[in-house]
Description:
The protein has a domain at about 35-45 and about 115-325. Helix content is about 20%, strand content about 20%. It contains five helices and ten strands; from the N terminus they run H-E-H-E-H-H-E-E-E-E-E-E-E-E-H.
Amino acid sequence: MRYLTVVLAVAAVALASVPAAGQELPRTPWGAPDLQGVWDFRTLTPMERPDDLEAKDVYTEEEAAEFEARRLAEIAALDDEEPADIVGNYNQFWFDRGTTVVQTNRTSLVTDPVDGRIPPLTAAAEARRAAEARAREGTGRHMPTPGGFTEDLGSNGLQVRCLMGFNSGPPMEPRAYNNNVQVFQTEDHVVLLTEMVHDARIVPLDGRDQLPADLRQWSGSSRAHWDGDTLVVETTNFLRETSFMRGGSTRNLHLTERLTRVAPDTLLYDVRVNDPTTWTRPWSFVVPMQLNPDPLYEYACHEGNYGLYNILAGALEEQSEAAASR
């Protein structure tokens, strides 16, 4: 029964990438699949399958409705909780996590491994995280590690400095808000413009080589090609960690993103994550994105970097007080 469940779940994901029989999907004037538009990737479905679901890959319709109701009630109740490390946090009005699970009713976005769980960390990654936890003991998540003002502003440092959005990746992942990406196409380029931090990845489609290995960028070096009607984007040469998984990956990340328009209103986003210095094996997740009739709006992280100034000033004041009390 376990084997049959796994087979059916994998088959459901595979079938989701195949347009319905006789369905004509839009194409560009030069004949390529038209992926253009604003695509919404918010969902209540978690990245990993919850522990209590064990071997359940897919919800029934009734189970999905129950999960959605329970999760929405949990989110609404967050306004009654006082965050321990954030002053003046948003209330739930400002968040936009979605209201439903993904169309396939999967219990996790992770599709490989089949247990819906991200593979274990390598020993080196475990050691890195333990060292960071020791260095940041007693420090809030939006505060810099003591003495680390230039290279480290904490586990959310890239987002605090507005270098990379917390869900813009690459790869993109559903998070608290701004879960939209706009796709533009020409014959020899594709652009992925994320709403979060309005970051634009301009990806060549003309067969050029990747950038040299010593030329690294925050979002890596991306190159794309068509595999049938699927756009395949390969990305390497990351400068260091991205915002993905709260900075969980390293500069050795090799990312493969596959984008397939499977229906007029659905873009399937299939991601293969390979970072041998972080996880013990490659793994994959899939997000069915929905066409959004609304435009992207400008996202201002913190204008003039006043937020960063205040964060650093507050951290220095706390450190001075701590030193004076010794």
